[in-house]
Amino acid sequence: MTYRHEAFLTLVVVLPALGLAGCGSAESPKDVVLVTHDSFVVSKSVREEVERETGLRWRILQSGDAGEALTKALLTAGNPEGDVFFGVDIDLLSRALAGNVFDTYTPPQLGGVDPRYDLDPDHHVVPVDHSEVCAIYDRTWFTSRHLVPPRHLTDLVLRRYRGLTVVENPATSTPGLAFLLATVAHYGDFSWHTFWEELRADKVLVTDGWEEAYNARFTGGSAHGTYPIVVSYSTDPAAAVYFAGRKIERSPVAVIPDTCFRQIEFAGILRGARNSKGARKLIDFLLSERFQAGMPLTMFVLPARTGVPLPPVFRRFAPTISHPLELPAAKIGANRDRWVREWTDIVIR
Amino acid sequence: MDRHRDPLSARAWRAVGYGVPLAFLAFFFVFPLAEIVRRGLGSGGGESPWSVLTDSDTRQVLWFTVWQAVASTALTILVAFPAAYVLGRYEFPGRSAVRALVTVPFVLPTVVVALAFLAILPQGLQRGWAAILIAHAFFNVAVVVRVVGTFWARLDPRVSEAAATLGAGPWRRFREVTLPLLAPALSSAAAIVFLFSFTSFGIVLILGGPAYATLETEIYNQAVRVFDLRAAAVLSLVQLTCVALAVLATTRLEARLAIRGQLRSERDVLRRARTRGEKLVVLASLGGLALFLGLPLAALVERSLAVGGGHNLAAYRALTEPTAALLATPWEAVLNSLVYATGATVIAVVVGGLAAFAIARSSRWSTRLFDGLLMLPLGASAVMLGFGFVITFDRAPVDFRSAPWIVPVAQALVAIPFVVRIVVPTLRAIDERQREAAALLGAPPRRVWREIDLPIALRALAVAAGFAFAISLGEFGATVFLARPDRPTLPVAIFRFLGRPGELNAAEAYALAVVLMVVTAVSVFLVERIRVRRLGWF
User: Fold this and answer.
1) pTM of the predicted model, to two decimals?
2) How far is Cα A63 from Cα B210, in angstroms, rounded to an integer?
3) Looking at the structure, do residues A143 and A249 belong to the same domain, yes or no?
């Protein structure tokens, strides 16, 4: 019986250990791994196509939201989880560059990219897409009440829009932070305080993330919502038509153009990448017309490349924001934490 | 206690019972967590560890974390107790269905539940501590109903009847007979609820609003937003210390509270409600619980049907089609979830079961320490553990990028404490005389174990397996970055849909949540049923 017990012990302890050793890394030089955030999407057909063309096996590793994914990349700098990282936001750019996470690479396709987005002259990272974070409103809500919707950022603090706006917390949400930056860019270093003090007095609702703001609080996103103005994206009017679940001729939501702040997402080759040759090919692909043209309908962001045709629903329903609010990445990097702290004191405390 | 056993076999037994769970925990929990904390404390910049500790904000966060967890636990027990009583004393049609259904809220992603609560709570209650407590109770009712109810159903009703014969009134019988007998199971359930509430994340962020923070949300904030790893490491140490204290207190309490007595089979304990009063109690208890759990769930179902201005099945139809939100069709996510959950349940029942048998055999301090250690994963910061996995298991032999089995392993880490907490009180309650009688009749130790301990533990093991399965189905924090994108689980898929604009995407997220509800109820029902019937001990 003792013998049997020991046989059992061997079974339980040794076998899993062998299993661990056996199942270990099985990465071949043909693999290229893209590390990215949860919102990254690519269609199966595009993915298979790039695999056929390049002879690579493209694997995708999604590691949480944009902040978490970048934190992981910073923690593993030099011994990265994969070869290419996609999803550095403009507001995290300086942190990523300071963390020495990326190798430099200047892809040939960069010539086709709008130079306004190319913010890192050394090309540790290259721009892949942009999107505009804006205040948007529920058109139906305003028309059915015969009210004039807000047209400017400054309108949001008018008495007649009191209690109608929901924003995300810049400490926890990417669009929330972008909107805070929009107010800093519009009002300047100190006057932005006044805007938020007034918005707070107007009973602005602050949510932790976009999901709650859009899907539960915004009247355009939920039948139970009570706020007809929300901070979201300029592509929402197109998305609202595309995902209406039926055919509609007019988007139920609209953008307030001068509230928009430009977000840019970057990609780069991770320092210490196992397959740096494959990594370059992957970056080239991210900037290719084929991939860029697919981004609007899969990720609801706009291509960084110029001259890429947009899907009809975007051409028809998503407004082009030609002069969004912007701030230099270095200024954002140096002040972001302080601004968020000040915002918290003004709006939450 | 082991004096009837042949010493060598007892030693081998103990080596397995302690060794396997310890090795598992050390490798997949202590190691990665220690790595990230070490890295955090060693990183420069930010505030000094001492100033983080003494900061008034930290104290405030700690205080809120503790009191909301205590209050949530109390509220959960209060809400669940009547139903636990009914499940523990009465036989009625659909009893196992009730036990399976009650698990449903427990597996739903917190974001989805929080959004459902926003849809039904009155405007004034939508934000703040009250909403947090109510949501915690909603989530954790299953723990109390199942753990306490199952244990209750094994308690010999004759003890209480004897007290009645001796003239004790119902309140006195409850206080002096039933409650002491139930205490170990109650403290087990309370410990789990406390830990879940203590480390609550999504509920606090959404239902608390931006003014509320727990240690868990603050750790996330420091690690991810501010990127002050040192502060995050200090806060996770504070969190772990609190959790360790709470766990040690409960394991100690539990060992002390254990009362040995004749545990009986459910068949002998349960009876039908006879008088009108009894029927009323059964109906009111179950009806009240159904209302409490059913309202938010009904809100979810309603939202899954709301597409294109009316109510229809468009979102469910869309689930069968390939979508841009995922690298798989949503239905494949159902299959992935079931496969991972099966793996996690097997690991959790084997590792947790071995540990439970080892723990129940002794009440020495070293065993209590071991018991407490197994509970820690429930109270550790998911964010930090996740980062720990990333920096620890990044090369052969354990490289999680190429090892899909790491998903069930991580899920089992959360499920093991459940198995232990559910099985230990039952094992402790086994009357030693039963074992001694068997030994006297010449049964060798292994046979005593097989014919006395195992059959009695089986019911508890089945409940534990059902729970492990449910935990794995609902696990999100670890799964979201360990699961490969082309093999998403249900909660991961729900989250992806929720992150996309447009009515249909939101409805598909809620529709998948409804699918998750159904899958959970059915599989928990089946897991519990198969075991009992196949092994045929009852």
Assistant:
1) 0.86
2) 24
3) yes
